[in-house]
Write a structure and sequence with these properties.
The structure holds 2 protein chains of 2 kinds. By secondary structure, chain A is mostly helical. Chain A is about 80% helix and about 5% strand. Chain A has a domain at about 30-250. Chain A is globular and about 60 Å long. The chains are: A mainly alpha, B alpha/beta.
């Protein structure tokens, strides 16, 4: 007997009517919009994770929980004072960046300064961040209780020909795109952006040419956490918020970052968008029951094909 | 009405009589709670309902233990949404904490997991937030379930409504979790038997983040009914994207989610017309305390109760309280009473055959405007089904 996913695929292949529907949808722009929205969220969340890993080799398993804090910040500011999330995301980003600074100064600064520890750093950081994740989740559960929260914002539907876009999803996409451009320009042209890239490429060489390592590490933590907070604000416009919503985002971010190359920021952004397209168009061409199979299948295939480059890249840094 | 008056109204429908003696020793009632983990969001309503019931009982002077009122005290631990931990907690509650009574954990897996514990200790437990035909395989005697929404009965209720309203075609979307899959396994033959054509039959994983491709197919098939056996997260995705794609089916069903307060806040007018499962309404005049439960919950927590879990949880407490009022804390006597008596609850009479509540029918709720109406079956309905109005564009 075939497993259910194979049954679904076989049924789809045997059903030209459904294939026809999916193909027409492929050309409608609706799927393109959905892929861009899903991909843009992956990009923003993964970018923050990648910054922290790239500059310090720290595996932030609490990244999704920072997304959750950003979402709660926008929810409460909207609910209590009516502040729109497109504005409160700046506050959420600032608060989460502050948390990043506190975590860096309180937990990682000395650890990173100890030259005897680099080999153990990745593993240790994973454990520390798991601890932070549990603390953040339970802090949120205690403060806000575990009831799912949501609010209604920009819920109109904009129709352009056959393409229909909910305003909040469009705002999510536009904001994410603007953020990506800002981050891209920052990394390419700003002195601190260049310093971050230098630190990612070669820590010792960056120090030799005068990069203030500690300041750049602190900045990376602040930007990484801040981006997660902003992503949370954007997500809060379309999804329900609970203290335990973060874990799937952490997983998605890790998949994206590993696909793009740990520490490779631009490829990581491309990988996030690629995953969004795989998820949406893959389902359209096969079956929705294959959603996870497609994502993790692509993940494993890409890892296999790039394993030599992937390992080489890490050794260089 | 004040909170105190509402709480008094909640316990004032025959459970307690005046003039009974008071005793200081509390009745200690134990349970495990999914305070963290996968079910924490959904389980919050259960814990709140337990707390509301305790407040109501204590406001009325305490739990009537065969003529003596004693205050209620809870002993509970976080099971982290892990059925294995729930088993350990119930063992501890019974053997170490030596609680007088037990309340249920959250969700079908935890109920099934702890059934062996209560059976071994012969400790009666009235379950609430569990629904699966697998529950019928549990040994009857120490565990019972208040729900009327067993998947086979739910599937039949949906089919009966579609048939009664003359709907001929349907699209079925199914989350690959146990309860939706069970519901699907009973719905497909029921639809076939009723002559309702299934135009789309798709499953999706619980981790789904976007339904655009799926709903594009549904839109093209243009069915009379869209039946989504979905849980809250994917129900919310459906709401966003069905509206975006302008799915026009007059019957649109989401299995779990629309009864939660967050849905009304998130979707507002767009939620109107959505059908979901549930067999309770505060507006049912024959169900004593139903209105008081709604108002007391809203007053205590500043949001309406879930129409699905809150009554199920409250019923389980009421059944236990009525059994204790009649026979005291003797477990054998409680067991015999629950197994044989008919109980008066906020969801009408409850009668168990084996582990199952056979008095409460599977029901369907519909959001009509900004309120929830019980639309099926006709024997308990408080309103008629209305075709889903067009999705608001602004």
């Amino acid at each position: 007997m075939l497993p259910p996913t194979c049954d679904a695929l076989a049924a789809r292949l045997d059903n030209p009517q459904q294939n026809g529907l999916a193909v027409s949808a492929l050309l409608s722009g609706q799927l393109l919009f959905a892929a861009l929205v899903v991909g843009s969220v992956y990009v923003i969340i993964a970018l923050g994770l990648n910054l922290v890993f790239g500059t310090m080799r720290l595996l932030d398993a609490a990244h999704g929980d920072v997304v959750m804090l950003g979402a709660y910040t926008s929810f409460w500011l909207f609910t209590l004072v009516g502040m729109p999330p497109l504005l409160s995301m700046l506050i959420a980003g600032g608060l989460c960046a502050g948390l990043g600074v506190a975590v860096y100064r309180g937990l990682f600064r000395r650890l990173l300064a100890d030259t005897r520890l680099p080999r153990r750093l990745e593993g240790n950081s994973l454990l520390v961040f798991f601890g932070i994740s549990i603390i953040l989740q339970n802090f949120a559960a205690l403060c806000f209780d575990t009831t799912p929260r949501a609010y209604l914002y920009l819920d109109g539907v904009i129709r352009v020909g056959n393409l229909a876009m909910t305003e909040n999803r469009l705002a999510e996409l536009a904001t994410a795109a603007i953020l990506c451009v800002i981050i891209f320009l920052f990394l390419r042209f700003h002195i601190y952006g260049l310093a971050i890239k230098a630190l990612i490429q070669n820590r010792q060489a960056a120090a030799v040419v005068g990069v203030n390592i500690e300041r750049i590490q602190l900045l990376s933590f602040a930007i990484g956490f801040g981006l997660a907070g902003i992503a949370g604000s954007l997500i809060s416009m379309t999804e329900q918020i609970t203290p335990f919503m973060g874990f799937p985002f952490t997983i998605a971010a890790f998949v994206t970052v590993i696909l793009g190359g740990l520490g490779n920021l631009i490829r990581g952004m491309a990988a996030g968008m690629f995953l969004g397209f795989v998820e949406i168009y893959g389902v359209a061409l096969t079956s929705s029951s294959l959603d996870s199979v497609l994502i993790y299948g692509v993940f494993i295939v890409v890892l296999y094909l790039q394993s030599q480059d992937f390992l080489g890249g890490r050794q260089k840094s | 009405m004040t909170t105190k008056a509402l709480l008094a109204a909640l316990v004032g429908f025959g459970l307690f009589s005046s003039g009974i003696a008071n005793a200081a020793d509390p009745v200690r009632i134990g349970f495990s709670a999914a305070r963290t983990g996968l079910f924490a969001g959904a389980a919050d309503g259960q814990i709140k309902t337990y707390e509301l019931w305790k407040d109501a009982v204590n406001a009325g002077g305490g739990l009537d233990v065969k003529g003596v009122k004693r205050p209620v005290e809870f002993v509970f631990y976080d099971d982290q949404s892990d059925p294995g931990k729930a088993v350990q907690i119930y063992e501890k509650l019974i053997t170490d904490d030596k609680v007088d009574l037990l309340l249920a954990p959250y969700g079908t897996p935890a109920h099934i997991a702890i059934a062996g514990v209560v059976e071994r200790h012969k400790f009666p437990l009235v379950g609430n937030t569990a629904a699966s035909v697998k529950l019928r395989e549990l040994k009857p005697g120490n565990v019972w379930f208040t729900t009327g929404q067993m998947p086979d009965r739910l599937a039949q209720a949906i089919t009966d409504l579609l048939q009664a309203k003359g709907f001929k075609t349907a699209a079925l979307l199914v989350n690959q979790l146990p309860f939706p899959l069970e519901s699907k396994s009973f719905l497909i033959p029921a639809l076939q038997k009723a002559g309702i054509e299934l135009k789309i039959n798709e499953e999706y994983p619980p981790t789904i983040k976007d339904m655009t491709a799926l709903l594009a197919n549904v839109k093209a098939a243009n069915p009379d009914a869209v039946i989504a056996f979905a849980f809250p997260a994917d129900s919310a995705i459906y709401m966003n994207q069905a509206r975006e794609l302008d799915i026009k089916a007059p019957f649109q069903f989401l299995e779990v989610g629309p009864t939660e307060a967050a849905f009304a806040k998130q979707f507002g007018d767009a939620l109107s017309g959505i059908v979901t499962m549930g067999h309770w309404s505060p507006d049912h005049e024959q169900w004593h305390g139903a209105k008081a439960l709604f108002e007391a919950y809203e007053q205590k927590y500043h949001e309406p109760p879930s129409y699905l879990n809150t009554p199920l949880v409250f019923m389980s407490c009421q059944i236990l309280a009525q059994a204790v009022a009649k026979v005291g804390l003797d477990r054998d006597a409680i067991r015999q009473t629950i197994a044989s008596d008919t109980f008066d609850t906020v969801n009408g009479p409850v009668k168990f055959v084996g582990v199952e509540n056979v008095a409460t029918p599977a029901g369907l709720l519909q959001v009509q405007g900004h309120s929830m109406a019980l639309i099926w079956p006709p024997s308990i309905a408080t309103a008629d089904f209305m075709p889903k109005p067009p999705w608001p564009t602004k």
